[in-house]
Design goal:
heterodimer; A: alpha+beta; Aldehyde Ferredoxin Oxidoreductase,  A, domain 1; Aldehyde Ferredoxin Oxidoreductase Protein, subunit A, domain 2; Aldehyde Ferredoxin Oxidoreductase Protein, subunit A, domain 3; 3 domains; 6-stranded mixed β-sheet; 24 helices; globular; B: mainly beta; 5-stranded mixed β-sheet; 10% helix; 27% strand
């Protein structure tokens, strides 16, 4: 078994840390990470719980392949009830923290209750303790990381922390590990801060010593790495240009959300693209991009490591930002760029640095600023509201200032920290919030990619591209090309992506492997590592089981089928340009078929037969 | 006849010499097809993965018959992905 077989339960009310055995019966049904932690959350909490109350729990969970030699086997997820959506929250992160936790001998950490005082959790192999966090509470993630590294005098510790945004109640605060990798979405950082937990510090020296069949595992993981290396996307495209290569693609096909999704193409897209990150700048002749980077065990290495032009207005008086750091990835570049009509690559890089420094989800932050910009241009939000910021589309200085304020929870940043839905409601224009279930859209306008409308509407954690990435098929031709402007066949396509992703997210592997791998490549790796006879069919069923368990939790939380919809703008206002010109999203043509394929009622409720078939 | 040509990611190397960035204008004759432009530029078949004319995907089997018209935009990528 490559599960560690052990959970660390942290009772913050009592200040205790207690090991307990992993429930292996559940592991056989839900595999690990996303699926297994969801099972624990469902069994241990009331779905109606206030996400920021002590009764909510927060689970950091690895998968059985986390920390192993499988390529990309460094993932962990954070599962809780999300404060942004009121739905289940599950945010996945790379870097090195997850593997370190596994190497310390733990599958999961379950935080419950609320500490009376700020604390951080220190884990060194079997030893775990809660330590007062007085010297780091009120600090950024980056400051916290530095202070804790110096305090523990160990360069090999790995740290996941929340920043000032989470402490100040920003509803989309992230948990950032290894300085610039993040469990980013749905406000999982906000929940962690509400429990007065500032950071988790981990050092693991045990490694993985319980692979079921080590020889077979070495053989199948090597073969799978060869598949990644020889695939044009994972072997060449992603390492060279990262996710940012999509900026021009998505703009060209007319699905680039622009100016709070008023438009579907951005005239400045090429200036903030993956290609632009290679262009030498005038001031020092260096490009924005320094190098690519990889998470633990990853042989793809899609990450971007960049610098800001030292003469740029954002940092010319701030030498502390003149170092290389993570980003821009496509999602951040879109949310901070085209959605605000801003084509200043350095301003975007700066805003992204701040999102990492203080733990903001750049998608939700950017989309909320975009909504505020539209309201400002309508005269609904005034200069008085913003504290003097000229919050117009295209204003890079306004973006930089908003990032500074939101990161620290100051001034107008407190309003921006509410997220787009609450901000638009506050100012009397709820229809201008580009959200599903309260969570902001990622970088694909569903008027130009019809299947993504269904993927967003039915996503269990609110608008999200990583729950069912039909873009792969509709735009990129992976595993086969479908027409992005038609709705036929999309219900089946979205369901297949959702189920497969549910399995991958439960394994410890990165979903980006699926640009080259199918479950046929993944199943042998899990099977060689773990008991349980893991086949592609079994994994597909695990994914479907996870999806239905999340759905059941949401319905019990009050997030029913009536929330499976899109903003009016995307259903009623046609795209103005591009191939989708004249077209809105036709969700109504896909949703009934999707419910039927899922074995749900016409209202979107899993039938007893479906739940019984899946053992939910 | 003028064609706007955009070659992205690693295909930038196939742009005519002297072109900066990823975009240029090509003079093409009447009845020129998508495949003829790809061949003229020397782009290997497996590298012409995502081929769009005015943002609309042209399937591999249609590239030899799809005639380009004045003012259209031809954009080509190698296999790419993101998220």
């Amino acid at each position: 078994m490559s599960w560690a077989g052990k959970i660390l339960r942290v009772n913050l009310n009592a200040g205790t840390v207690t090991p307990e055995p992993l429930n292996m019966e559940w592991a056989m049904q839900y595999l690990g990470q996303r699926g297994l932690a969801t099972k624990y959350l469902v069994e241990e909490t009331d779905p109606k719980v206030d996400p920021l109350s002590p009764d909510n729990k927060l689970i950091m969970a690895t998968g059985p392949l986390t920390g192993t030699m499988a390529s990309t086997g460094g993932r962990y997820s954070v599962i809780t009830k999300g404060p942004l959506t009121g739905a289940i929250a599950c945010s996945n992160s790379g870097g090195f923290f997850g593997a370190e936790l596994k190497h310390a001998g733990w599958d999961m950490i379950i935080f419950e209750g609320r500490s009376p005082k700020p604390v951080y959790l220190y884990v060194e192999d079997d030893h775990a303790e809660l330590i007062p966090a007085d010297e780091i509470w009120g600090k950024s993630v980056w400051e916290t990381d530095q202070i804790l590294h110096e305090k523990h005098a160990d360069p090999l510790i790995r740290i996941a922390a929340v920043g000032r945004a989470a402490e100040k109640g920003c509803l989309y605060a992230a948990i950032v590990n290894d300085l610039h990798r993040a469990a980013g979405r749905s406000g999982v950082g906000t929940v962690m801060a509400s429990k007065q937990v500032k950071a988790v510090v981990v050092r693991g020296t045990k490694g993985i010593s319980n692979i079921r069949d080590p020889e077979a595992f070495e053989e199948v993981t090597e073969a799978a790495k060869k598949v990644l290396a020889e695939n044009a996307v994972t072997g060449e495209g992603l390492p060279k240009y990262g996710t940012q290569v999509l900026m021009n693609v998505i703009n060209e096909i007319g699905a680039m959300p622009t100016r709070n999704m008023r438009d579907v193409q951005f005239e400045g897209a090429s200036k903030i693209s993956g290609e632009a990150m290679y262009e030498p700048r005038e001031s020092d002749g260096k490009p924005n991009l320094v190098t690519n980077g990889a998470c633990f065990g990853c042989t793809i290495a899609c990450g971007r490591i960049s610098t800001i032009d030292p003469t740029h207005f954002t940092i010319k008086d701030k030498p502390q930002y003149r170092h290389a750091s993570g980003g821009l990835e496509y999602e951040a570049a879109w949310a901070l760029g085209s959605d605000e009509g801003i084509d200043d690559l350095d301003a975007l890089t700066y805003a992204n640095f701040l999102c990492n420094e203080d733990g903001l989800d750049p998608i939700s932050f950017g989309a909320t600023v975009a909504a505020a910009m539209e309201l400002y241009e309508m005269g609904v939000i005034t200069r008085e509201d913003t504290g003097g910021i000229e919050l117009k589309f295209g204003n890079a200085e306004a973006l930089a200032r908003c990032a500074e304020l939101t990161a620290r929870g100051e001034g107008f940043g407190q309003v921006l920290g509410l997220g787009s839905k609450r901000l638009c409601e506050k100012y009397g224009h709820p229809d201008l919030s580009m959200t599903v279930k309260g969570q902001e859209f990622p970088a694909y306008d569903p008027r130009g990619i019809q299947g993504m409308g269904l993927a967003y509407a039915t996503s269990n954690r609110g608008a999200c591209h990583l729950r069912g990435y039909s873009v792969a098929s509709e735009v990129l031709g992976i595993p086969y090309k479908t027409d992005p402007l038609v709705t036929e066949g999309k219900a089946e396509l979205v369901k297949a992506f959702q189920d497969a992703t549910g399995a991958v997210d439960s394994s410890g592997l990165c979903v980006f492997t699926t640009f080259a791998w199918t479950l046929e490549d993944i199943a042998p790796q899990i099977d060689a590592a773990c008991e349980g006879n893991w086949t592609p069919e079994k994994l597909q069923e695990v994914g479907e089981r996870v999806w239905n368990l999340e759905r059941k939790y949401n319905i019990e939380a009050g997030i029913t089928g009536k929330y499976d919809t899109l903003p009016k703008r995307l259903l009623k206002e046609a795209a103005k340009t591009g191939p989708a010109k004249g077209m809105a999203n036709r969700l109504d043509e896909m949703l009934p078929e999707y419910y039927s394929l899922r074995g749900w009622t016409p209202d979107g409720v899993p039938t007893p037969e479906t739940l019984q078939r899946l053992g939910v | 006849m003028k064609l706007r040509l955009k070659l992205y990611a690693t295909l930038g190397d196939y742009l005519p010499s002297g072109v900066r960035g990823h975009e240029t204008t090509l003079d093409i004759g009447p009845e020129t097809t998508v495949q003829q432009v790809i061949d003229r530029l020397g782009i290997p078949e497996e590298q012409a993965h995502l081929v769009l004319v005015d943002g609309v995907y042209v399937e591999p089997q249609a590239r030899s018959s799809r005639v380009l018209r004045e003012g259209e935009v031809l954009a080509i990528w190698p296999p790419v992905a993101g998220g």
